[in-house]
């Protein structure tokens, strides 16, 4: 796999839903191209925050959400389709 790096401009604009006391956060669908079959199946998708975007090391990565993402690569593209309601709801 290759890590996808999103900037703050990739976060789709959001507004608090005062009626329902919540905020839905969304990002664009993510595509990995020509993913080799080895080493095998993918099972999860983690969306994380880099607490120090200038360092670029795993030590600064803070996991935010974890999603089931069962995919078996076959050499083609893999797309994580993010629901229209977003990947995270804070209430």
Mean pLDDT metric: 86
Low-confidence parts: none
Largest sheet: 2 strands, antiparallel
- The amount of helix comes to under 10%
Q: What is the topology, as strand order, of the major beta sheet?
A: 1-6
Report the structural category.
mainly beta
Per DSSP, the total helix count is: 0
**How many angstroms does the end-to-end distance come to?**
32 Å
Strand runs, count = 6
| Order of helix and strand elements from N to C terminus | EEEEEE
Principal-axis shape equals globular
Strand percentage lies at 35-45%
What is Rg? 15 Å
Which key phrases capture this entry?
mainly beta, two-stranded antiparallel ribbon
Can you lay out the helices and strands and say which pair or pack?
Layout: E1 23-25, E2 30-32, E3 42-50, E4 61-71, E5 78-80, E6 88-90
Antiparallel strand pairs: 1-6, 2-5, 3-4
């Amino acid at each position: 796999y290759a890590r996808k790096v999103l900037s703050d401009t990739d976060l789709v604009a959001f507004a608090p839903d005062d009626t329902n006391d919540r905020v839905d956060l969304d990002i664009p669908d993510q595509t990995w191209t020509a993913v080799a079959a080895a080493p095998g199946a993918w099972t999860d998708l983690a969306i994380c925050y880099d607490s120090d975007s200038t360092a670029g090391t795993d030590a600064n990565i803070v996991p935010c959400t974890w999603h089931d993402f069962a995919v078996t690569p076959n050499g083609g593209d893999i797309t994580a389709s993010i629901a229209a309601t977003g990947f995270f709801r804070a209430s």
